[in-house]
Amino acid sequence: VEEGDESDESLSGSLGSSIDKETDIVDEAITFFRANVFFRNFDIKSSADKLLIYLTFYINVALKRLEGCRTLAGGTKAIINLGPKDVPVPGETGFPFAGLFPLPQSDEEAELFRNYLKQIREETGGRLLGVAYRPNGTPNKWWIAFAKRKFMNIIVPQH
Questions:
Q1: pTM for the whole thing?
Q2: Boundaries of domain holding 31
Q3: Which pLDDT tens digit goes with each residue over 45-55?
Q4: Distance CA 57, CA 78 (A)
């Protein structure tokens, strides 16, 4: 961050410099989550569509973790604890969308992709807290209710 630039760059890495301060893929995923979660099929036209699908699934997972959290502090802890979990990449057990992304061609490429997914999940989780909880720190029932939805008919495991 250059002198005089008041932007808050709390994340570093490959995603940090590509975040548009106006609207980006994370904002889009959160904004359209409640509509997109009802779809079972998507017309994929670009890699942004693939990332939007991944983020919609991640938001569904995060909301499932927030479901029992009655305060913003509890929700923040749940999201933070979700972050360090193993983040599988295409070709690994647990990656939710086999065939959606190309398989990494090397261990280095897999680690780069894993780090990108960790970072974008962290950013998404932080922004999701801003809509899933009201300014007074209580849950927004209109958001938390979507934890019960299955995205693309995928069952999100309980904690």
A1: 0.79
A2: 24-148
A3: 888 989 999 99
A4: 17
